[in-house]
Amino acid sequence: MGGTSSLLDVRNEGDILIITLNRPDKLNALNRALLKELDEQIEFAYGSDAVKGIIITGSGAKAFAAGADISEFSALQPHEAQLLSQEGQLIFEKIDKLTKPVVAAVNGFALGGGFELALACHIRIASDNAKFGLPESTLGLLPGYGGTQRLPQIIGKGRALEMMLTADHTTAQTALNWGLVNAVTTQEELLPASIAMLQKFFTKAPTSIQEILRCTHLALETSGTSFLQEAKSFGRCAGTEDFKEGVQAFMEKRKASFTGK
After folding, report:
1. C-beta separation of 123 from 104 below 8 A
2. pLDDT at position 1, please?
3. For this structure, is 211 an active site residue?
4. Which of 43, 136, 188, 245 is catalytic?
5. What's phi and psi for 171, nearest 5 deg?
């Protein structure tokens, strides 16, 4: 696999597959086409003996991935929104369950679906300008790609709720203090540090790495029912007047006026 498309830049660094989200003009926002290509690369890595680990990062210096592509789902009906949520969940769950280590090299904004992608990775390393946030509540939605499930596991229920309910951005240093990221580096050192961490893993027994990843996933695994509930809630939110108002306000760059309807 590998290679460059309009949406992903993929290259090998020894045993490491480096996947770069390649929509810099859209701050690497996740649309369906990009997620499909990402899924194909994860499938390739899963079956390739030449790939021992993966790094996922974003192109440019501004963003890892600044959310999902709102223009793509703003007109969805509730059942379509639920299906969109489930599609993203399946891809991110595949990353989470991979028995090869996956590092998110977060180079700037990781918001919404982009943050949820980072949460699905096993390790997160952030550049010092990184910002994390889940702005879905400002759109009349909720995190629909597994964020309501994974974030509380990583930083605890209280802090996770604070992030989701306020939609505030969290700095790289705060993320480090909360255990959301494993390390903070400069932009220049982000990729080398990510590669160095994976190479350190590779000095250990391959079977041990695989089984540690497998068992850790089992220890933190939530039921399929809880992910389905997240997707159903995402669909219900997409059927509200508040969702329409939230998206319109976002497009018009103004503050939304929610009514609870």
Report:
1. yes
2. 55
3. no
4. 136
5. -75, 165
26-76 pLDDT, tens digit each: 999 999 999 999 999 999 999 999 999 999 999 999 999 998 877 777 788
Distance, CA of 148 to CA of 173 (rounded, Å): 22
How large is the greatest C-alpha to C-alpha distance in the chain, in angstroms? 56
Question: Is 162 noted as a catalytic residue in this protein?
Answer: no
Closest CA to 84 of 26, 154, 23, 141: 141
Residue 64: the pLDDT is 98
Among the listed residues 25, 188, 44, the one whose alpha carbon sits nearest the alpha carbon of residue 105:
188
Active-site entry in 13, 43, 72, 116 = 116
DSSP state letters, the chain: --EE-SSEEEEEETTEEEEEE--GGGTT-B-HHHHHHHHHHHHHHHH-TT--EEEEEESSSSEEEE-B-HHHHTT--HHHHHHHHHHHHHHHHHHHH-SS-EEEEE-SEEETHHHHHHHHSSEEEEETT-EEE-GGGGGT---TTTHHHHHHHHH-HHHHHHHHHH---EEHHHHHHHTS-SEEE-HHHHHHHHHHHHHHHHTS-HHHHHHHHHHHHHHHPPPHHHHHHHHHHHHHHTTSHHHHHHHHHHHTTS-------
The token pair at 42 is 């994860």
